[in-house]
Amino acid sequence: MLIVKKFGGSSVADKDKIFNVARRCMEDYEKGHQVVVVLSAMGKTTDGLIAKAHEIDPNPPKRELDMLLVTGEQVSVSLMAMAFHVLGVPAISLNAAQVAMRTTSAYGTAKLKRINTERIRHELENRKIVIITGFQGINKYEDMTTLGRGGSDTTAVALAAALHADACEIYTDVDGVYTADPHLVPNARKLSEVSYDEMLEFASLGAKVLHNRSVEMAKKYGVQLVVLSSLTRAEGTVVKEGAKMERMLVSGVAVDKNTARISVIGVKNEPGIAFKIFNILARNHVNVDIIIQSVGREDRKDISFTVARTDLLEAMTLLNENKAAITAQDITCEEGVAKVSIIGAGMLSNPGVAAKMFEALYSANVNIKMIATSEIRITVLIDEADANRAVRTVHDAFDLAD
Ligand code: ADP
Ligand code: ASP
Ligand code: MG
Known about the structure:
Bound molecules: adenosine-5'-diphosphate, aspartic acid, magnesium ion
Helix content: 25-40%
Order of helices and strands: EHEHHEEEHEEEHEEHHEEEHEEHEHEEH
Strand order of the largest sheet: 3-6-2-1-9-11-12-10
Structural class: alpha/beta
Number of helices: 11
Radius of gyration: 22 Å
Shape: globular
Distance between the termini: 35 Å
Strand content: 25-35%
Number of strands: 18
């Protein structure tokens, strides 16, 4: 069997954890399997590198930021190779340039395009464990790129697809996907299986246990994922097509605090304005989520939407530079907000779900600022200070606890 095993930052945070991972990988190797290991940067290294960059430059050039961030993963893979050396197992570390992990050119949000698997295959055939840097790639200018925060999961899935791996295991600090973040909701319940579509909503709406693009890619290439703990032997959660959901109305609750609201006030009530606003943002790779447009008064209207808080400075700068072109009288923003969402295929055929969520929020005295829905999710924007309480209240209201 060929197995891709990905370990997140907390799983390789120190020397003992690195040896723990090496020993777990050895078990598969000694059974005769081919083992590819994908690693994130140790512990909170990436956060530390970003903070260092901001000490020098509050708005660092994206190319240079990527050049800095890719160093984190390189530290983990080389140390892991040394741990295997100590344990007497042949292993080799490789970075994204060495395996030609090609991406689009957008620094900070690059998308994987193709991987040259020749070198990896060659090393595996020589009975080496191959350790590869997650999160990073190389673009057409031969520059280093990164795939967005949490992107190592996507590296692992891409490698599993390219190598036609028999298994893709994502090891982290929790032993599966739960009905809500178990660090926030202690009585959350572990899901034994979850479908790609629901997992994609979970991941996109703030449950960082899997990078959303990793789920998208797993669905596209039919890669079955297992989410497991690197510290216990508990059975994890399987992410796959047609997972048998447990006939629940709602599968889980997610919260996203990396959110900010922007309002473009008093734009002309005429065709093309929304296009201009969102085109400026899209061209600069700023993702927009919930969008609300007011009905309008005489010849003016307001358009509000949410962006990731980490994109707020860039979005506000872009909009202010184009204030006249988008006919805005004013542009305002608010940072202290959070998105709380319920996710579940079961809500498709159940009209009462939204009302139940809003009732729970009302009973907890939480004010709703914006609402967005799709067939399998309902999202509300609320004050960040209310977010944790809101998640627990909604989780209780839908009887999701263990
Ligand atoms: P890693 O460093 O291993 O990639 P992450 O921190 O990116 O780990 O993701 C794991 C974290 O995701 C958990 O520690 C947990 O707090 C969080 N999380 C959020 N929502 C969920 C959920 N529904 N199920 C499990 N974990 C969740
Ligand atoms: N180290 C990167 C991050 O913190 C990638 C990852 O952890 O997946 O975002
Ligand atoms: Mg992660």
